[in-house]
Design goal:
It is a single chain. This protein folds into 3 domains: about 190 residues, FAD/NAD(P)-binding domain (3-Layer(bba) Sandwich); about 140 residues, 3-Layer(bba) Sandwich (FAD/NAD(P)-binding domain); about 60 residues, no CATH class. The chain is built from 11 helices and 28 strands. It is of the alpha/beta class. The longest helix is centred in the middle third of the chain and has 20 residues. A 6-stranded mixed β-sheet has the order 5-2-1-11-24-23. A 5-stranded parallel β-sheet has the order 13-20-14-15-16. It is globular and about 75 Å long. Bound molecules: flavin-adenine dinucleotide. The site of flavin-adenine dinucleotide has 33 residues, from β2, α2, β6, α7 and α9.
Length: about 425
């Protein structure tokens, strides 16, 4: 019988894996590849802050799983993974409903010989009271669009009441890459909204506050990267608080651990990640403190050779015995590439290679204003990049993801169509 490979989660890692497996094993009939995702379309997650600010129209950058499956020799099934029977080698998928609550696809089970779990991560609010109720989490395009609509509503209301001096306050909790990128993107959005005539709120009257519990912005990056980022944020008029843990969130404010209060009408929580809760008890698979599935260097889960995990939902040892591979798109991409080889070897009963994380550096976008980061190489060590060049490297990361999914020729056509779109459409999504 044909070997059944089921990949659950069509994100940065899972979609690349299903596509590459389809083009190789699927096309040659060596394995039957099925991709399962809770949604019908894929948007590369590092674009979500741009969707939230309105600089990117999510529907123009989404990939449809059904079409991708047809073109790349795999099958797509819509459904949310909700259970696992390891003994029977079956996963359980919950029923899918439309916006009106009408059942579209019933609950069902799906058999596998090899299972790859790639369901990503969600925002971690660390149990801070009020965070889930009053903050936007940037976990999905729907969340990002919800924030964008809230922002637009403030501007439309202010525009209708023109004459009075008005402002909007936005607080972002977490000055990691997501928080920093969102803050800069919002400053750009404020300038564009005024340029398009929504003039009730002047650009400097979008008051953006970035709050970080740790001692510096971009805590995971080197000082020589985080310091220029901090300086650029200051130049953009963004208020940055470091060493400032949030204690509680209310509808109109954030209560800080030192007793102070920061008022904000729009609040985004971008302070950390954890794996989706259902992984914590998935037929006994081992998970860690933040719910990630613990995997061996081969990316096989510790208790089941037939089940692999990759990307943000996997706790993969970094090799120093203390840390895990960081939750980044580049790690998900590398792990997907390794599992393409591993699946081929598995079909031939050959031993599987270990995954070794290669850190190519980190780049943080500061919207159209700049970018900052460092690139790593074997010979050159770590090179700091800033400004236009850093921004070009940053933009190339998304293009590399597109090349894996569409091939170089179609990616070039997409780049051309983006360029044409930019000259015929507003710079900011205004609906
Ligand atoms: C705003 C933002 C900016 C970022 N910027 C960068 C950056 O510049 N560089 C970088 O390296 N990383 C960045 N990241 C992190 C990066 O996006 C993630 O590390 C990466 O997307 C992880 O890939 P993944 O395949 O593990 O999961 P994801 O890409 O999150 O994909 C998970 C998929 O699983 C699906 N899914 C979830 N639950 C289920 C379920 N129960 N059943 C079925 N399907 C399910 C989802 O619909 C989704 O398609 C950023 C993240 C954010 C939020």
């Amino acid at each position: 019988m044909t070997h059944r490979i089921v990949v659950v989660g069509g994100g940065a890692g899972g979609l690349e894996l299903a596509t590459r497996l389809g083009r190789t094993l699927g096309k040659r009939g060596k394995a039957a590849i099925t991709l399962v995702d809770a949604h019908l379309t894929h948007l590369w997650k590092p674009l979500l802050h741009e969707v939230a600010a309105g600089s990117l129209n999510s529907s123009e950058n989404e990939l449809n799983y059904v079409a991708q499956a047809k073109w790349n020799h795999f099958e797509f099934q819509i459904g949310r993974l909700c259970g696992l029977d390891r003994a029977a080698q079956r996963i359980a998928l919950a029923a899918t409903f439309d916006e009106a609550g009408i059942e579209l696809v019933p609950a069902r089970t799906l058999p596998y010989d090899s299972l790859v779990i790639a369901v990503g991560s969600i925002t971690n609010d660390f149990g801070i009271a009020g965070a889930a109720e009053h903050c936007v989490f940037l976990d999905t395009p729907v969340h990002a669009e919800r924030f964008h609509h809230q922002l637009l509503r403030h501007y439309l209301r202010a525009h209708a009441r023109e004459g009075a001096h008005q402002h909007i306050s936005v607080a972002i909790v977490g000055a990691g890459a997501t928080g920093v990128e969102l803050a800069a993107e919002l400053r750009h959005a404020a300038q564009q909204l005024t340029a398009y005539g929504l003039s009730g709120i002047a650009p400097q009257d979008m008051r953006i506050t970035l709050i970080e519990a740790g001692p510096k912005v971009l805590p995971a990056l080197l000082e020589r990267v985080s310091e220029p980022a901090h300086q650029t944020l200051k130049k953009l008029g963004i208020t940055v608080f470091t060493s400032s843990p949030v204690k509680e969130v209310a509808a109109d404010s954030l209560k800080m651990a030192d007793g102070s209060v920061i008022f904000a009408s729009l609040k985004v929580w971008a302070a950390g990640i954890r794996a989706p809760a259902f992984l914590n008890n998935l037929d006994g698979l081992e998970s860690n403190r933040i719910g990630q599935l613990v995997v061996r260097p081969t990316l096989q889960t510790t208790l089941d050779d037939n089940i692999f995990a990759l990307g943000d939902c996997a706790a993969c040892p970094l090799g120093d015995g203390r840390q895990n591979v960081p939750p980044r798109a580049q790690a998900a991409h590398q792990q997907a590439a390794l599992l393409v080889k591993s699946m081929q070897l598995r079909l031939n009963d050959r031993p599987l290679p270990p995954y070794r994380y290669r850190d190519y550096g980190s780049l943080v976008s500061l919207s159209r204003f700049s970018a900052v980061g460092n690139l790593m190489g074997n010979l050159m060590g770590s090179i700091k990049l800033e400004g236009w060049l850093a921004r070009m490297f940053y933009l190339s990361l998304y293009r590399m993801h597109q090349i894996v999914l569409y091939g170089a020729f179609r990616t070039a056509l997409l780049m051309l169509s983006d360029r044409i779109g930019r000259s015929t459409e507003p710079r900011l999504k205004l609906h």
